[in-house]
Each structure stands twice: as C-alpha cells, then as structure tokens.
Amino acid sequence: MKEWKEICALSDIPVLGSRRVQRSQGPQVALFRTADDAVFALLDRCPHKGGPLSQGIVFGNKVACPLHNWTIALDSGQAQAPDEGCTAKFSVRVESGQVMLCEAELASIGLEFEPIKAGPCTRSC
C-alpha cells in the first residue's frame, strides 16, 4: 500500500501552470495542472537536454520544454514524435482539494540526476 505525502492545495497550482516540489536529493518534481483540473507530476527535467519542464507552457495534457520546445505528455512523461525519450512520472492523488505524491517514489525516482542549478556564473567569462 502506498503512503501519500500531502504537498499543496490544488489551488496552489495555477491552471495551465506548474509548481515545483523540492526534494532532499535529485532534481525537483514538477506538478502540472490542466484546464480541467487534472494534476500530473513529472521529474522537472526534459529528456532532451535536462531543461526545467516546470517553466514550460502547459497545453492540453502536454508541456512544451522551454529550452527546445520538445512536447512531453503529462500522463506518461513520453516525448511526442518526432522526438524520442521519456522523463520519470510520479503517482498523484487529489483528495478534498489537496495534492499528494507517493512518498516512496519521491524518495527513489530520478535520484541519479543532479539537481538543476541556477544562479550567477561563478567563473570569469
């Protein structure tokens, strides 16, 4: 039986938008909300070049990666043809307006990847 971790209220995720979930290891998890209030969770990492999917445009049940416009299916993490590849997906539950993720998946999926690091350049250009 899966143990579920409460993450946020459904209303905390913008319609046709996303919210990131920080983890102690590995890349963040991106929560996506569609126009019909369906919620999906993917590793916040495009299978192409590792771009942050949480910064992409959500349309229908897909998200466009902000780096190279790859289209990723929210229900499977699969890149849409002609592109190939897949990003990890996470189980999601929404109960009484609260979004929950599987604790075991949060602790194990995608840990082989480094978290995305953003910020100022630390070397001289």
Note down, in words, how this protein is organized.
- With 125 residues, the protein is mostly beta strands.
- The protein has a single domain, classed as Rieske Iron-sulfur Protein (3-layer Sandwich).
- Helices cover 3% and strands 33% of the residues.
- It contains 1 helix and 10 strands.
- The chain has one helix at 103-106, and strands at residues 4-9, 17-21, 29-33, 39-43, 57-59, 62-64, 71-73, 89-90, 92-95, 98-102.
- The strands form 3 sheets. Strands 2-3-4-8 form a 4-stranded antiparallel sheet, with no helix packed on it. It has a 3-stranded antiparallel sheet with strand order 1-10-9. The chain has a 3-stranded antiparallel sheet with strand order 5-6-7, with no helix packed on it.
- A hairpin with a 2-residue loop joins strand 9 (92-95) and strand 10.
Rg measurement, Å: 14 Å
CATH superfamily: Rieske [2Fe-2S] iron-sulphur domain
The number of domains: 1
Number of strands: 10
CATH class: Mainly Beta
Structural class: mainly beta
Mind describing the biggest β-sheet? Answer: 4 strands, antiparallel
- Helix count equals 1
* Distance between the amino and carboxyl termini: 52 Å
What is the spatial order of strands in the main beta sheet? 2-3-4-8
Level-2 CATH architecture: 3-layer Sandwich
String of helices and strands: EEEEEEEEEEH
Helical content (DSSP H or I, runs of 4+): under 10%
Q: How much of the sequence is in beta strands?
A: 25-35%
Mean pLDDT: 92
Quaternary? single chain
The CATH topology, please? Rieske Iron-sulfur Protein
Shape call: globular
